[in-house]
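RETRY 2/3 - previous attempt timed out on the joint model. Re-submitting the same 602-residue input unchanged.
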Amino acid sequence: MNRRAVLRLARRLPVNLLLVVLSVLMIYPLVIVVLTAFKSNNEVLLNPTGLPIDWTFENFITSWVEADFANLFANSILLTVVSMTVATLIAALASYAIVRHVTRVGSWTYLIIAAGIFLPMQLALVPQFRVVRELGLINSYLGVILIYIAGAIPFGVFLMAAFMKQVPKEIVEAAIIDGTGYFQLFRTIFLPLARPAIATFWVLQGVGIWNDYLVPQLLLTDPTKRTLTTGVLYFKAQYLADWGNIMAAVLIMSLPVLLIFIFAQRYFVSGLYAGAVK
Amino acid sequence: MTATRIEDPRVVPAAEQPPLSPLKRRVWSDRSSSGKFWIAISPALLLYGIFTVYPMLQVVFASFTDAQGFNRPFDFIGLDNFVRIFEGDAVLTQAIGNTAIYAFFKVIVQTILAFLIAVLLHRQLLLGNIYRAIFFAPIVISPVAIVFTWSFMYDPTSGTINELLRGVGLGALAQDWLGNYDLALYSVILVDLWSGLGFNIVIFLAGLSTIPGEILEAARVDGAKGWKSLRFITIPLMVPSIGLVLVLSINGALRAFDTVYLMTRGGPGNQTQLYMTQVFQEGLVRNNFGYASALAVLVIVILIAIAATQNKLNGKIAENEETR
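RETRY 2/3 succeeded.
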């Protein structure tokens, strides 16, 4: 009895050992960020790998002030939340229109929009820049937001249309016979039913927008309008090899997303699952 | 509601002619409200048209010109840009070679690794959630943060990797990881393996969770355990997930951009130049906008072809499953 338990454990040992080794390799860079952030810049040079001898909080203060993190957070939150909210509404409405319009026009519109998922948009940055400039939106949040929304629509429509197609025809027919209007039907039935798709959309596209650096780098040159990514890029350019400060900045910028991710892991992963299976 | 509808004389005879009864079709597809269709879809089409399609069309247009900068005049040169691509320029050839090596690691190595880890994680393990959190965490971290972290680890003088090597007496192996001509590309690849692994594990775990427990149970009763069960039960049932991961990985490898752009800018020399970074280099740094556009058009055609192939394969898999 006891021997069997030991044997079972022994059989599982290699698997667990392998996982432990892989996990250590995976988490090592994150551990390094945390440890380095608590060392003074001088100590980093003498002791890059070990635990901090003098735990210092100073890097966080200097980095927070010098990189103006309060402002960076405000800008990143503004750009991400506004873009994603508007993109969700527009994409949901478009998906609804496509799902309700079962004609050749409808399916062609769907194909044209969904094809946008495969366009590597960094290749169109120059003409995009020109469009934004002609609209007089250089250095304005609106220009960046419009580009983000346009970039998010294809994936949003792809996800939400797949969900909305599953709305039973009977429900729609019943609602229409009851006199529910076109847009009322969208608001009362289709939008709520697409909620899982919307969650996936926010997880994948939202993280993408939050982490993007190319668009703000090109369109927002005003220092007060920097986002987390471009702000930290600029900070790194100034603090070339002050690794203590840089790692503190990296930690400050990554911590919120990581915390949200850890506390909402289940929700987050189910969102990814849904996106992956679809 | 449904009951009254079935008794409706207009519906019952119509139901004999499949696939859709006139009422159903009218109600469902709503041809009558075509105007509302356009109202509902116009915000999406407008924004998508102005900020995505129009710029992309300009790229396609520019690929047939010798456009240089932003506003300078240009001439049509037909297919000259494409001819130049296929005649091969040295840097481009190198970038394509690098992209091929990169793709090998991202498509083959990363997929196998992710699959094995997913199979291990799929068993209900002690601390399973912690393992998951560790493997998934890099998914949400910004490329900027990832690149700075790894730049520090790779740093030749005070980097942690060299320091660790020296610490265990392997100081001879210490390297300038990003400056060494033979190693730089692999250093970049390692960063992207680290950050990309989690997403593939998620997809595989999703696939594994759809395999009914009874099948594995039955196989075990029949004597298929461990490797055998993996080889003859799990892998065949995972073909759709594997296909998805492969397509996404090929796609990702062709589009790889961030790490090289932020970390090495293609250097040393052009040792880490990838296809996308080379396009960016030509277009924005050297101002060869026409030529860069031709390169861009080429990769877009390939990406769309891959997507179409996947669509077709998916259709076939679905068909097979229906006929089974």
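The mean pLDDT of chain A is 86. Closing ticket.
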